[in-house]
Task: structure prediction
Amino acid sequence: MCGRLNITDDPFVIQILLDLGIENPTEKIQFSRFKRATDKISIVFQENHQRFLSDAIWWLLLSETATGFKPSKYTSFNSRYDKLNVKGSAAYSSYRYRRCIVVAKGFGETQYKHGKPIHYHDFQAHNAGLCFAGLYKKWLHPVTGEHTLSCSIITLPPHPKLTPFHDKASPLILPQQPELLNKWLDERYHEVSAFSHLLTPSMPQTLIAQQIDKPSLYNPVSEEIIIEPDR
Result:
């Protein structure tokens, strides 16, 4: 998980962004039914008491080129929960000082067997949008002066309700509680022990799962399956 996102012009997605204090979000967000790792996606973050919706490369670690930045050779579109508190890890500093939220309608998972994909599933929030817990970094090119953002989504151990579809990991979906979301985005809040309860797999809202033919086409090949939230 999670290598693709569904970020469509959905009223629930837009409402979340408005609730997070983003003005005119439809003019700023990167919409696409199929966003994959290394693409640019839109993240919500906070600096100096102000909220922003900006593009970021979905790959936390970047490499400098002569004219800009590109994804590093080190895979980093996801940040594992068990690395967040490991000093020296790519996610350690960002977890404390640069947390963000990726708002989406859904996400996709691929199940592998012996290193080969055996099926693909898409997941969508039922009558809602999703808030993924993300991390970001800021980069400044020494020659061009270009400012670039990069990001990752935090992943957890597989949730039991998702293991039939993908048994490696599950995304950290933030409960849409204003106090929690505000604390997550607050760059002045460094007591990450307050987020420890989020690092256990949980299902805060209803998802609709559906098998598809392939990620780039996303044609349904099965009936929808309702995944109920944890109680």
Q: What stands out?
A: The chain has a mean pLDDT of 96. The chain has three helices and 15 strands.
